[in-house]
Amino acid sequence: MSSEALPVRPRHLGGAHPGTAPVARLATPADAEGIVRLRSSFVLAEPLPEEWVVRSGAALAARLAPDGDARASVVDAPDGTLASCALALLHPVLPEPASPAGRAARVHTVATHPSWRRRGHARSALTTLLGRLRAEGVAPVEADTPSAVGALFRASGFCGSLAPMRMTWPEPVARGRVDERTGHVWLPPEQYAETVMKATGFACVLFTDLHDRPVQLHGVYSATHPWQLVGGTMDPGERPWETAVRECREETGIELAGPPRLLATVYGLPGAEWPYSTMGLVFDGGRLDEARLRDIVLDPREHDEVRVLPLPEWRPLMPPRDFARLGAVMEARRTGVAAYFDTWDWGTE
User: Fold this and answer.
1) Would you say 26 and 73 are in contact if contact means Cβ atoms under 8 Å apart?
2) Which 8-state DSSP code applies to residue 29?
3) What count of other Cβ atoms lies within 10 Å of the Cβ of residue 88?
4) What are phi and psi of 112, to 5 degrees?
5) Residue 349 has pLDDT above 60, yes or no
6) Which CA distances in Å does 69 have to 56, 73, 107, 159?
7) Which residues pair with 209 in a beta bridge?
């Protein structure tokens, strides 16, 4: 819950600044990551790593869909971010007089950015959220209320529970091995693995024609990356060159003979479109003559066109980040020095 407290100041309209009228709206899936960021920064004892912000935001977006089990309201800040939010998660219960619809809710988060506190935003968000739940017949609605926000919940109609305590059965925690010399605790491998960065791997192949013009395929499934090198995501147990050979066969019908010649390593940070980091290798597929270019057979589920163009003519057809990657790979082919390209991020262009 938020550490926001009701303001202690001379009364005017419940503590809001004169002339302000915070208006909350019902949240949509597009608000999910903003809600997670407010919770991460101003509710949790320790902020979430960026990877988990993205993953949690994607999960919440699905749950905020019309058929999902999350309900939220938000107050927008003038800069387009969220000033405040209130989030509830629904769960089924047995029907009884207190919950005739068989659904209950727990207020999971109420948070306000420090820049927008003491203006009534949290009250507006919580009131709007409770109105939505009431309209859906969701009852009862419960909340854990730290003392700092207890007055806010009492003012919204919440009352103390008769339950003497709440007990939690946590997931058993694996014990680590203690290095008696240094005192360092070494986690079991499976537990440590959950703490490290997650990444997906890919392998691609650069083909050119006999005039060193890059060959690319037009994807039917990605508006973000419309023109692509031959290649794709690694399968479990595959080595990068094995992925390149398989993807080349599946996407073009060309059988790579090898040996592998590395042109570039590529890295990208996670973003709104993909929740993991991305790391991959680009190999040199060599030069294709007119006959081999004509013999390319596309998988229509993935690509619908092969195109060969001089490098400068690719620029207007591709996002800047993709074109920069293509340029680095072509320079590596020209110089014989493998490129390191670490800005192929999953962000907006």
Assistant:
1) yes
2) G
3) 25
4) -135, 135
5) no
6) 15, 14, 12, 24
7) 288
Q: Which amino acid is at 116?
A: W
Q: For the stretch 296-329, what's the b/e string if a residue is b when 16 or more beta carbons lie within 10 angstroms of its beta carbon?
A: bebeeebbeebebeeeeebeeebeebbbebbbbb
Structure tokens at 230: 């031959």
Distance CA 257, CA 244 (A): 11
Q: Residue with structure tokens 């017949």?
A: 137
DSSP 59-111: HHHHHTSTTSSEEEEEEE-TTSSEEEEEEEEEEE---BTTBTTSEEEEEEEEE
E strands, the chain, are 25-26, 70-76, 82-92, 103-112, 141-143, 177-178, 185-186, 199-209, 214-219, 227-228, 230-233, 262-268, 277-288, 303-308, 339-341
By C-alpha distance, which of 88, 91, 53 is closest to 72?
A: 88
Token pair recorded at residue 67: 């058929």
Query: At how many degrees (to 10) do helices 147-155 and 121-135 cross?
Result: 50
> In Å, what is the CA distance from 103 to each residue of 65, 95, 153?
17, 8, 20
Are the CB atoms for 23 and 121 separated by under 8 Å?
no
Q: What is the pLDDT of residues 125-163, one digit of tens each?
A: 999 999 999 889 888 888 876 655 667 777 777 776 655
3-class DSSP state for residue 152? helix
Q: What is the DSSP letter of 16?
A: P
Give the residue-averaged pLDDT of 295-320: 96
CB of 261 within 8 A of CB of 320? no
